[in-house]
Design goal:
Elements lengths: L6 E5 L6 H10 L3 E6 L17 E5 L5 H8 L4 E4 L6 H6 L1 H18 L5 E5 L13 E2 L10 H15 L3 E6 L1 E3 L10 H12 L1 E5 L4 E6 H13 L1 H4 L3 E4 L5 E3 H9 L6 E5 L11 E2 L2 H5 L8 H11 L12
Parallel strand pairs: 1-2, 1-4, 2-3, 4-5, 5-7, 6-14, 7-11, 8-10, 9-13
Antiparallel strand pairs: 10-12
């Protein structure tokens, strides 16, 4: 479905997800205003600059005057600007709150009744699940990090507005023009390719995973089905990829046979999440991921002929 009349405002547009989302929106004939502070020096949107329907703004989403100006024309808002992950938010707690929560609440407060939000939150809000029990959207949220807590608070504010869909993303993986190596699948695959070994802490901890291109598809799906999905949260992940860290490494080892996996009895993962997730709710709306974990690992192995660790990280 193409739509020439809709204008999408994307914050954090030059980030890991935004750098895949923005060209996809443009290919569907949306007009896009892409706002980013380019704090990592990334050049990931340069390939989109020939699009007449793209406006790029270098700015901070906490700047009320700037955001009010660009909110005026937006039909759809996708707020991606965020300090992502438990370690980074723990390092910068005040900045995390101002960006991850307060700035997006500000956008909601200045929005007109016809402006809609499709927002990424996270399934890290589930914190520590129960063995063998899948977390659904009805499962009580018990975040174990500031990152998770801010996302839970944001989701409550979003959904109470009646103008938003919340996508609780699994741990994202895959190649993006603004690459990140500090995400679990990306990290472990990089270690397999470059170091040939990994030392696992708490190797039994489980998480769910989703490819970055499928995240973009989920945003488009939520836009296309907004009326039936609004006001609700949806888990977004691969239903066949609720894997422990050890199981993930064994999947990587299928493609990198000399990958040596070691377990440490001493030490703790700084991110204490451990849960399995049901994605049945969004699947019932007709959304199904298209990139398997194994396909994503194949893609990462190719990409790691190009990139090196010191170029791509958030922390």
């Amino acid at each position: 479905m193409k739509n020439t009349s809709k204008h999408v405002l994307v914050t954090g547009a030059a980030g890991y997800i935004g750098s895949v989302l923005v060209p996809t929106l443009l290919a569907r004939d949306y007009a896009v205003t892409a706002i980013d502070n380019f704090s990592y020096g990334q050049a990931s949107l340069l390939d989109c600059c020939h699009h007449e329907q793209l406006t790029i703004v270098r700015g901070d989403i906490r700047d009320e005057q700037l955001m009010r100006k660009h909110m005026k024309n937006a039909d759809i808002v996708i707020p991606l600007a965020c300090l992502v992950g438990a370690p980074l938010c723990a390092q910068k707690p005040l900045e995390a709150k101002s960006i991850n929560l307060d700035a997006i609440k500000m956008l909601l407060d200045m929005a007109g009744k016809d402006q809609i939000f499709v927002s990424p939150t996270t399934n890290s809000g589930y914190g520590v699940g129960q063995d063998g029990i899948y977390c659904t959207e009805e499962t009580p949220l018990r975040p174990v990090s500031l990152y998770g807590t801010l996302k839970v608070d944001l989701e409550q504010y979003l959904l109470s507005s009646g103008q938003a869909v919340s996508l609780r993303l699994a741990t994202v993986f895959g190649i993006s023009p603004r690459m990140r190596l500090d995400l679990l699948v990306n990290d472990f695959t990089y270690r397999a390719v470059s170091d040939r070994f990994v030392i696992l802490f708490e190797a039994h901890f489980k998480r769910n995973y989703i490819h970055v291109r499928d995240v973009v598809r989920a945003f488009l799906h939520a836009i296309d089905h907004f009326e039936s999905m609004k006001g609700q949260p949806y888990n977004v992940g691969l239903s066949d990829a609720n894997l422990s860290k050890m199981e993930l490494c064994l999947e990587i080892k299928k493609q990198v046979p000399d990958f040596c996996i070691m377990e440490s009895e001493v030490g703790k993962d700084p991110d204490q999440r451990n849960y399995i997730v049901s994605n049945e709710k969004i699947e019932k709306t007709g959304f199904h991921p298209q990139v398997s974990l194994q396909k994503g690992i194949t893609e990462l192995i190719k990409g790691y002929q190009v990139v090196r660790r010191n170029q791509f990280s958030n922390v």
